[in-house]
Amino acid sequence: QVQLVESGGGLVQPGGSLRLSCKASGNIFRINSMGWYRQAPGKQRELVAAIASAGSTNYLDSVKGRFTISRDNAKNTVYLQMNSLKPEDTAVYYCYVRNLRSDYWGQGTQVTVSS
User: Fold this and answer.
1) What DSSP state is assigned to residue 106?
2) Residue 56, H or E segment
3) Among residues 90, 103, 105, which one has the least CA distance to residue 38?
4) What is the pLDDT confidence band of residue 33, given thresholds at 50, 70 and 90?
5) CB within 8 Å of 99: residues ≥ 6 apart
6) Are strands 91-98 and 103-105 parallel, antiparallel or unpaired?
7) Which region holds residue 108: left if phi is over 0, alpha if psi is between -120 and 50, else beta?
8) pLDDT per residue over 38-79, tens digit each?
9) CB distance 105 to 22 below 8 Å
10) How confident is the model at residue 26 (pLDDT cuts 50, 70, 90)?
């Protein structure tokens, strides 16, 4: 019943940009945070960016200054604006919504940065 649908992934050249979107539907009530993980082949899943209910944000060090997380509460949507993309950003990106009860996950969207 709770669904997170991601969009915006794709293939881009190094230095390019993508905007990922994650639309949540269903009853999630008390949201602690929303954000994005990514997982590349041969690497562990890592937290890329998160935004708390109060609006504070946190970023993986390697994406600071390049990625921006934002949300639209009215649309139940979280975004990840990715600029100056690098090949090492290539991964499957998963959005999530977290509350005290559970984590809810998107289906994942592939981001490939290659020339």
Assistant:
1) B
2) none
3) 90
4) very high
5) 28, 29, 30, 31, 32
6) antiparallel
7) left
8) 999 999 999 999 999 889 999 999 999 999 999 998 888 999
9) no
10) confident
